[in-house]
Amino acid sequence: MSTNTPLVEVGALRKSFEGTQALKGVDLSVHGGEVVALVGHNGSGKSTLIKVLAGIHQPDPGSRVTLATDSGEPVDLHFIHQELGLVPTLSTIENFDIGQPLGGLRGVRIRRRAEVEAVLRHLAGFDVHIDLDAPVSELSAADRTIIAIARALASWRSPRGVLVLDEPTASLHRRETLQLFDVVRRIAQRGAGVLFVSHILEEVLEISDRVVVLRDGLKVCDTPRAETDQPALVRLIAGEDLGPAAARAGGVAEGPDVLSVTDLGGANVQRLSFGVKAGEVVGVGGLNGSGREHVAELLFGLRSRTGDVQVAERAIPGDSPKAAIDRGVALVPAERRTHGIVETMSVRENLMLSEYRAGFVESAWIDTAGERRATMDWMRRLDVRPPDSERPIGTLSGGNQQKVVIAKWLRGAPRLLLLDEPTQGVDIGAKAGIYAAVLEAARQGAAVVVCSSDSLELAEIADRVLVLRNGRLAAEFGGDEITESRVTEACLA
After folding, report:
1. How far apart are CA 278 and CA 255, in angstroms?
2. C-alpha span between 442 and 27 (Å, rounded)
3. Which class does domain 6-238 fall in?
4. Which fold does the domain 257-492 belong to in CATH?
5. Which member of 164, 243, 341, 410 has the lowest number of beta carbons within 10 Å of its beta carbon?
6. pTM, to two decimals
């Protein structure tokens, strides 16, 4: 039974990034004794809301975030992410000890007996039986999650805190999930509030007392669990069926496959087979953890893989990005700042990083003037702003940086263009420019693969969409079958 006064309450919560509004006046509360599920598709604002609560992002002016008990005392707020924050090579006791030895110190020595007793006390009631001295990497995923939760609760000043669980069951088997749910219920029964973030709707309906749905930065539903079901949640998450988008390349590509993939495996992808023809845009969708996030890197040779990958009927080795580039393959990575650009170098220098075969090198001399002309030409084509080839790329907005990364590869006229989350973190204006560049590359004869967690994005630009779940192909749509809601539903099903 929940208490009347919320332990956590946010009101009119807004957060903007470089012109993009990630949260648009969201209200949310978590009371003691209840489990509130927070759901929404990728890009709905869930992660931003969590980061605001954690203090990573500061909300826009006018937003309210309140943490207080009935008596006005501060509320302990702890976050358990998928990574858990444990050191895998350390034991349970050592992980509990990080920051402050639980048993206290005697001289320069830790009091071992008191330390063990303290850990056992914090684990009591969680129904776990583990070797406290074994490295946590040797424990089950559920036991590791419980250890992370118990460690967080150990520092609470009272049982009436708030625990935020961010995709806690992503790596758990069903039996382990049930074990975790039992722990979550016990925590709520002690008077704590729990915010449970997940995309697995069956589990949301099983564990929650109340469900909050975000879509496009807005709260579109806040309802008791008993008053909703999975089909209703899917409709709320996906929104109205928008129909096929006019921006798609359209038509059925003809001729042999430029890209031929047979039984692709690696990371968590299993036996994926498909082909892409010249001029065709194929989207790969799926939630985080579905395998979608690894497909582009597997094809490019950045990750070890099995299966057969051919470009223009020539095999691409599974461990050589250079061989892929030599065959005419280009990759626009998901992590732009770490894998796509060198922030301290200029736009021109970044644009030229992919290859110097375009006539700008003669002997030991670089034709800098020619580079500048070519860079300015590409900046005009993709509307990169400001139009300054010598400006450090790190000073550009995210959308303009992404345009430069794409231009870097397009200038080499690739046979196969791989794009991983191509518009992640860019505003709507930059998205339009990026879509135009991708579709123009297809019109010029490139085969294009777009891996994206954004169902609307795939509906707007893809001729075919493959949806992955649990590493396997779960659904395929073509032509007018492709809509945002269909793709989203296939991801969630």
Report:
1. 8
2. 43
3. alpha beta
4. Rossmann fold (3.40.50)
5. 243
6. 0.65
